[in-house]
Amino acid sequence: MDTSHSMYEAGPGGITREAWSKACALALLDQARHAGRDFVGILFSAADRLQVFRFPAGEPAGIDRVLDFAETFLGGGTSYRTPLSAAVGLLEEEFDDAARGRGDIVMITDDDCGVTEAWMRRWNEAKQRLGFRVFGVVVGAPRVGEAGSALEALCDNLRSVEDFTDVHAAADLFRVI
Fold this sequence. Notes:
alpha/beta, globular, 5 strands, 177 residues, three-stranded parallel beta sheet, Rossmann fold
């Protein structure tokens, strides 16, 4: 989940992109807990700003840990490489240690940034080897998910949501993810 400065921008009803993205992430955490699955929340902004929150399925989430996850804001710019590389590292760890594959990555952002060809090659190789899917959720900035964007190239399924109070958009999002 992107926690760069642009996430402070307010959308419909004056609710910030940060609030909507965190509500989405907390809903995904709730879904994972309900299904008995692990959940890892990776908060990111600039290349040197990253925080990982692990919520193993077999352990209580703990309200303090959930609040820490929901209240952390890193600020700065936006870089996809660091958080996506960290996510791949976690999936590789699971694959190597427990022979588990097919984890999913959900990228929640409002900004686009470039990635190098070499990094993209390694990304695609990891996707092939580990069999994960990537869902992109663009919050309040539809241009970010346009054809030809880096985010479009990274994601298997990309959705743009302007207003999470639109029950049809929210339902479509959670049906897919």
